[in-house]
Each structure stands twice: as C-alpha cells, then as structure tokens.
Amino acid sequence: MAKKFQGFGGGANMQQMIRQAQKMQQEMARVTEELENLEVSASAGGGMVTATVSGKKELKALEINPEAVDPDDVEMLQDLVIAAVNEAMRQVDEKSQQEMGKVTGGMNLPGMF
User: Fold this and answer.
1) What mean pLDDT is predicted for residues 2-8?
2) What is the number of alpha carbons within 13 Å of residue 20 lying toward its C-beta?
3) Could you tell me the CA-to-CA distances from 45 to 24, 65, 68, 106, 107 in Å, in that order?
4) Residue 39 CA neighbour count, 13 Å, CB half
5) Angle 49-51-56 from CA coordinates, rounded to 5°
6) Strand (E) positions, 1-113?
7) Total count of domains within the chain
8) Considering the domain boundaries, does residue 58 fall inside one?
9) Sorting pLDDT into bands at 50, 70 and 90, what band is 9?
10) pLDDT tens sequence across 82-94
11) Distance of CA 112 to the CA centre of its chain
C-alpha cells in the first residue's frame, strides 16, 4: 500500500510557516513605510555644508554656510557638498539595513531594501 505524500513536515507546520511569512511581509511593509518618511542629515567640513536626505534617497535640503563660499575655491565647496550628500545616503542605507534586519532576523533578502 502506497503512503500518501504529506509535503514538508505536515500541513500544520506549513500553515504556521505561511502565517509567519505573511506576518514578516506585513512588518516589512510597515518598516518600509517608516523608512520612506525618515530624514537623515549629515555635515561636512565641520558643519560648513549639511545635506538632508529622505529615506527614499532624495535630497530634501542643502545648507551651505556662507563662510564656505569662496569664489577662488569652488572645488572645495563642491567636495563638501558631495561628502555631505554621500554621508547622508550612507546613513539612510545603514538605518534601512538595521530596521529591516530587525524584521528579517538578520536574513539577507536580496532586492528587499
């Protein structure tokens, strides 16, 4: 007499795994929404330039101290702007990874964030 195939560990375990996956998906959606509303500011040049970036990685604000504006050294100002924006973007990435890591238990899920 042939045995009936019961799948991966029985129906009850599969239902529990599905519920856990659905819960994780809902939690990830909630965290994603929170992260999109996040704003991170970073400075360069001792506060001469400050960039504010959203969780969607959009530059929201750029503050430049008038003392940083030297017509003879525009390159320095450009470097400060780039440094401030890049640092704000890095902080958004770091915060996103931290918050999603809390939801996924540290599992790396490609394409999720």
Assistant:
1) 52
2) 9
3) 41, 10, 9, 35, 37
4) 8
5) 170
6) 39-44, 49-54, 59-64
7) 1
8) yes
9) low
10) 999 999 999 999 9
11) 10
Exposed e or buried b per residue across 91-107, where buried means at least 16 C-beta atoms within 10 angstroms of its C-beta: ebeeebeebbeebeeee
Give dist(CA 28, CA 20) in Å, integer.
12
Residue 6: inside a domain = no
Structural domain that includes position 90: 49-105
Q: What is the pTM of this model?
A: 0.68
Query: For residue 32, is it within any domain?
Result: no
Residues 34, 80: Cα–Cα separation, whole Å: 29
CATH code, domain with 74: 3.30.1310
Q: Is residue 44 part of a domain?
A: no
For the beta carbon of residue 42, count every other beta carbon within 10 angstroms. Answer: 19
Interval 18-69: pLDDT, tens: 888 888 888 888 888 888 888 999 999 999 999 999 998 999 999 999 999 9
